[in-house]
Amino acid sequence: MTELVTFGETSLRLSPAGDERLETAEDVRMRVSGTESNVAVAASAMGADATWLSKLPDSPLGRRVERTLHAHGVDTEIAWADGARQGLQFAEQGPAPRTERLVQDREGVAAASVTPGELPMDRVQRADATFVAGSTLSLSGDIVETAEAVLRAAGSGLVAMDLDFQPGLWSVEAARETLEGVFDAVDVLIANEDQARAVFDRTDEPRKFAHAIASKRDFDTVVVTRSERGALVCSDGVIHEQDGVEVDAVDPAGQHEAFTGAFLERVLSGAGASEALTYGVASATLARTIPGAMTTATRAEVESLAADLDDGR
C-alpha cells in the first residue's frame, strides 16, 4: 500500500439547508472541509494509506475534525493547542442565476502557528508522496515556513501541490510571490483552470498554458481540472485529455479534491498519466453528486465510471 502524507489547515464548513441564503437561514449543516484533508479522504477511498498533518484547537470543534477524518479512514498526526481558534467557512449555493458564495473565517486559526518541530517530519521523509495546497500558504503566521519545510523534507518521494488559489484568502500578487518561492520543490502541480489563469496570468487555451507552466518551472507534471468539462495533464511534455461527464450536480464543492486524491493514488500505484487522469475525472464526477466538500464515493464506483470513460474514448 502506498503512503500519502498531506499537510494543511482544515475548517468546519457551515451551509444553509437546501437553497437558503446565509443571511436568512435558520438551520445550517456543519461538515469538515480542507483541501489537504479532502484529498487524503479521496486517496484513502481509493486504497492509499493517507495521513493528514496539522494543528487543531483542543476543543470540541477541533476534535470534530479529527473524528471525521478517522471515520473516513485517514490517519492523523495533530499538534493540539489550548485556547486556539478553529477555522470556519460559510458556504451558500443555489440554482442559476445565483452563484456560489463562500465566506472565509480562518484568521488566527490554530494551524497558522504550527512549526516544523510540532510535526513528525520522519513520516514526511518516509512517505511515497507529500501534498500541500496553496490555501494553506495563504494563512499568516508560521505556517508558510512550516509548509515549505514539509515540502523540502519529502526526500525521494513525490511532491505534489494544489495551486488552490482562493481570492477570499489573499491577493493574486501575494499568491504569486509566495508560491514562486516553493515551486522548485514541487514535482506535480494541480490547478483549477480559472485559478491557474489568475495566478499565472494566462489567456491561452489550457493545453498551451499547461505545457508552458511545466516547461518554465520544470514541473514533471501539470494537471488542469475543468469542472464538468473534464481535465488534462501535461506529463513529461505529453498532453493527455479526458472529457467530463454531464450529471445532475448536487454540490460541486469537493470535485477538485476528489479528482486530486484519485489521481495521486493512481500515480503512486504505478499508473500512467492517462489512466490517472481518467480515474481523477471519474472521482470528481461522482463527487458532484454528493453533498459537502468531502467525497464518499467508493473505489468500486470510481473504477466503474473510469472504465466507462475509457470505453467512451
Plain-language structure description:
This protein is an alpha/beta fold. The chain is 36% helix and 23% strand. The chain has eleven helices and 13 strands. A nine-stranded mixed β-sheet has the order 5-4-1-8-9-10-11-12-13, with helices on both faces. Strand 12 (231-235) and strand 13 (238-242) form a beta hairpin. Helix 1 (35-45) packs across helix 9, helix 9 (255-268) packs antiparallel against helix 10 and helix 10 (273-287) crosses helix 11. The longest helix has 15 residues, at 273-287. The radius of gyration is 18 Å and the shape is globular.
| C-alpha geometry | globular
| Major sheet details | 9 strands, mixed
In percent terms, what proportion of residues is strand?
15-25%
Total strands: 13
Mean pLDDT: 94
Helix content percent band: 25-40%
The sequence of SSEs as H and E is EEEHEHEEEHEHHEHEHHEEEHHH
Strand order of the largest sheet: 5-4-1-8-9-10-11-12-13
Q: What is the number of helices?
A: 11
Overall SS class: alpha/beta
Using only CA atoms, what is the Rg?
A: 18 Å
| Unreliable runs | none
Distance between the termini: 30 Å
